[in-house]
Amino acid sequence: MAKKTDHGDVDEMSFEQALKELEQIVDRLERGDVELEESIAIYERGEALKARCDLLLKQAEAKVEKITLDADGKPAGAQALDGAD
User: H helices then E strands: how many in the chain?
Assistant: First the structure.
């Protein structure tokens, strides 16, 4: 039975780092040249990396703002993208 591995380092990765490693894992699994035990281990790591990417994307979306314009068409401020007009 494969032993459970801690993927705590994933929590410190940037989106780009996590995505790059996730792409490498997908490539290895798609090639099919990885033994079963290792396939399970890297699949589990891939799940942790995917969750990290999802979290970071959601955080970025929350920060996206739309600029509000005044009557002259000049920027007057910003409001959250999901905010009421």
Answer: 2, 2
What are the tens digits of pLDDT across the range 27-58?
999 999 899 999 999 999 999 999 999 999 99
Classify burial at 22, counting beta carbons within 10 Å of its beta carbon; exposed 0-12, middle 13-18, buried 19 or more.
buried
pTM metric for this prediction: 0.70
* CA 67/CA 76 separation, integer angstroms: 7
What is the number of domains present in the chain? 1
What radius of gyration do the chain's Cα atoms show?
20
Could you tell me if residue 19 is inside a domain? yes
Domain that holds residue 65: 8-80
d(CA 37, CA 8): 20
